[in-house]
């Protein structure tokens, strides 16, 4: 926190966090870009989603905490810029903070919860449901609103099998966070937002905390440990399981529509 006004320290950490969070396959494509002059659809989506999430996080944190004297209110303008973009970057994969997390506004905490839940990109050092998963979820919703059946992006079509895997990963991840938050709230009580923040930080293996970790009971710490372990292997393990070859269905029942929404 004492380096919040140091440009070199902030840039160094942010560059390392971004490189570690965009995925090794994307890094390889970037290194080879000079020869190929092309990027895969995966790399384009991962890079664009990382950029969009970082910018959105920076803007919201900057304005939400601008006058908060417990975080950025007493900082000069450059320090507010550094702190806002640093927290936006670190929320999705790292565990560093240059301003006090526990003193943030609820709006900022909720934003960081969303960023931690999304996490980094596949094949990276970060956790979460991954940027490409969230990006495809948004594209799926947009495609449905436009009345189309297939996701199209960057002049490419996304397989419908991938869409079903996205929905499964998101559903199971939300279910895990939902259950663990209920359990931790029941055992520990206290501020619900901070409890939710703790659970999602554990799920995304981020490492950020509002300061309640050390005061958790043995049962509460066990819940956090289980959440960290499951969050680290869950989405990745689930994805690996889903890409295995499926056996064809022997029986197909009649189709019938169900009202939703």
Defining traits:
261 residues; mainly alpha; 61% helix; two-stranded antiparallel ribbon
Shape: globular
Query: What structural class do you assign from the helix and strand content?
Result: mainly alpha
Q: How much strand?
A: under 5%
Please mark out the parts with pLDDT under 50 across 5 or more consecutive residues, or reply none.
none
Order of helices and strands: HHHHHHHEEHHH
Strand segment tally: 2
Helix content: 55-70%
Instruction: Compute the CA-based radius of gyration.
Output: 20 Å
Strand order of the largest sheet: 1-2
Our measurement of the CA-to-CA distance between the termini, rounded to an integer number of angstroms, reads: 45 Å
Biggest β-sheet description = 2 strands, antiparallel
Number of domains: 1
Helical segment count:
10
- The chain-level mean pLDDT equals 87
């Amino acid at each position: 926190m004492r380096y919040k006004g140091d440009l070199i320290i902030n840039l160094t950490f942010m560059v390392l966090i971004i490189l570690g969070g965009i995925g090794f396959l994307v890094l390889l494509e970037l290194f080879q870009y000079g020869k190929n002059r092309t990027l895969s659809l995966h790399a384009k989506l991962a890079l664009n989603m990382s950029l969009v999430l970082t910018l959105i996080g920076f803007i919201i944190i900057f304005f939400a905490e601008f006058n908060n004297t417990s975080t950025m209110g007493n900082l000069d303008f450059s320090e507010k810029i550094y702190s806002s973009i640093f927290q936006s970057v670190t929320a999705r994969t790292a565990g560093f903070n240059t301003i006090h997390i526990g003193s943030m506004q609820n709006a900022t905490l909720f934003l960081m919860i969303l960023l931690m839940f999304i996490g980094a990109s596949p094949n990276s050092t970060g956790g979460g449901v991954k940027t490409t998963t969230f990006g495809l979820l948004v594209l799926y919703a947009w495609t449905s609103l436009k009345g189309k059946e297939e996701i199209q992006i960057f002049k490419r079509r996304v397989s419908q099998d991938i869409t079903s895997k996205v929905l499964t990963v998101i559903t199971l991840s939300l279910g895990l966070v939902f259950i663990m938050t209920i359990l931790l709230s029941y055992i520990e009580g206290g501020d619900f937002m901070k409890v939710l923040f703790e659970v999602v930080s554990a799920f995304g293996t981020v490492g950020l905390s509002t300061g309640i970790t050390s005061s958790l009971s043995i049962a509460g710490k066990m819940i956090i440990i289980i959440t960290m372990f499951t969050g680290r292997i869950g989405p990745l393990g689930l994805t690996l399981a889903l890409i295995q070859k499926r056996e064809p269905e022997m029986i197909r029942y009649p189709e019938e529509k169900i009202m939703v929404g």
